[in-house]
Amino acid sequence: MPNTLDSSYYETSIYKKGIFDGKVVFVTGGAGTICRVQVEALVLLGANAAILGRRTEATEKAAAEIQQLRPGAKVIGIGGVDVRDVKSLASAVDTTVKQLGKIDFVIAGAAGNFLSHVGGLSARAFKTVIDIDLLGSYNTAKATFDQLRANKGHILFVSATLHYIGLPMQAHASAAKAGVDSLMRTLAVELGPLGIQSNAIAPGPIAGTEGIDRLLPEHLAKRAVELVPLQRLGTTTDIANATVFLLSPAASYVTGTVTVVDGASWQLGEPS
Ligand code: HXC
């Protein structure tokens, strides 16, 4: 299956097998490409996981497939969860704690996006993306707070680079992701004294993701590789590796930051 990891990851990556033994990760958007590979890496390196999504069948199927990656891994899929509804998230937290014991890491990755000029964007359309990306991230932090506090946990937001410039057709998502970065920084400061870390990862043009396949305007897609200073698209393994670093003890003093994984592409003013 393209864009997913297998057991060769812990044989070939610089990370040690077992570094996440005993850890539990709670992930919104875990059936999507980016979040899925984040979970796969953590599970391969020892963690158990709960992945949440609106679509029950897709979420449960992804969970079952990820669980196969490591003998003994426990991965549960919780469908019917909309991050716009904090109660559905709270219920998913209860289910996770009952089935997996606790939550150490939270990945707030659920997102919605489409391309639209402001002229074609209704107020409801703008609000929909703000609600999924920004309010959904807040709701995820809110619902998992007790677990983060109890376990001196780490919340990792999946952000973007859209808002670093004025990007056409992305007013809604850019505003939402700017808010996500701001929320992440506030949480780092407010929750730091409790031993909780808060960071974000900002993927750039990653091959095989919706950001490239559906959301990159055609004129940019054709020139994507030459527009990236590192002269290649990113891979899902690039995202997995950065995620593992951030959640590992190697990053125990890293909080309040955005890790941009984009080959420096946004700095040319053409982010994915
Ligand atoms: C203009 C649009 C539109 C479009 C929807 N709307 N698509 N407006 N152009 N292409 C409007 C609708 O007309 C409606 O407004 C409002 O948005 C809400 O639409 P619904 O379909 O009712 O919302 P909902 O069912 O909640 O769906 C949310 C969604 C959808 C965001 C619109 O695309 C979705 O669920 N996506 C989830 C998957 C996804 O997008 N993943 C991408 C993540 S990648 P009116 O006024 O008509 O009622 C990502 C990477 C970012 O985020 C960086 C990459 C560049």
UniProtKB/TrEMBL annotation:
InterPro entries: DECR2-like, NAD(P)-bd_dom_sf, SDR_fam. Signal peptide: none annotated. GO terms for biological process: fatty acid catabolic process. Keywords: NADP, Oxidoreductase. It catalyses: a (2E,4Z)-dienoyl-CoA + NADPH + H(+) = a 4,5-saturated-(3E)-enoyl-CoA + NADP(+); a (2E,4E)-dienoyl-CoA + NADPH + H(+) = a 4,5-saturated-(3E)-enoyl-CoA + NADP(+). One of its GO terms (molecular function) is 2,4-dienoyl-CoA reductase (NADPH) activity. The keyword Disulfide bond does not apply. GO terms for cellular component: peroxisome. Its EC number is 1.3.1.124. Coiled coil: none annotated. It is an enzyme of class 1 (oxidoreductase). The keyword NADP applies. Gene3D superfamilies: NAD(P)-binding Rossmann-like Domain. PANTHER family: PEROXISOMAL 2,4-DIENOYL-COA REDUCTASE, PEROXISOMAL 2,4-DIENOYL-COA REDUCTASE [(3E)-ENOYL-COA-PRODUCING]. This is 2,4-dienoyl-CoA reductase [(3E)-enoyl-CoA-producing]. It comes from Sugiyamaella lignohabitans. The gene is SPS19.
